[in-house]
Design a protein that fits this description.
Strand order of the largest sheet: 4-1-3-2-5
């Protein structure tokens, strides 16, 4: 099955609640590659890519995130798959 990629903007109470660490752990457990970072506007941005079922499962789980998070909404956009080998946390943008 070919890989797919989604660029996500996660909005709500998602900074200061371990959302990025949760994202890395969850994405890796699903076999996804990509990255996650905080944005200066208080949102979290991520690129998730891999098997379509795993990407869909990640997005479903991301609606809740870690226990202290309060996700208002997730904006997802199809993007080209990048040549990435892992899932990492990037600096704030």
């Amino acid at each position: 099955m070919p890989a797919i990629a989604r660029h996500l903007m996660i909005l709500g109470r998602v900074q200061g609640v371990f959302y990025r660490n949760w994202t890395v752990e969850t994405a890796r457990s699903l076999g996804l590659t990509g990255w996650v970072r905080n944005r200066m506007d208080g949102s979290v941005e991520a690129l998730v890519q891999g098997n379509a079922d795993a990407v869909a499962r990640f997005i479903t789980l991301a609606q809740d995130g870690p226990p202290a998070a309060k996700v208002a909404r997730i904006e997802a956009m199809d993007v080209p798959v990048e040549a990435l080998n892992s899932f990492e946390k990037k600096p704030t943008a």
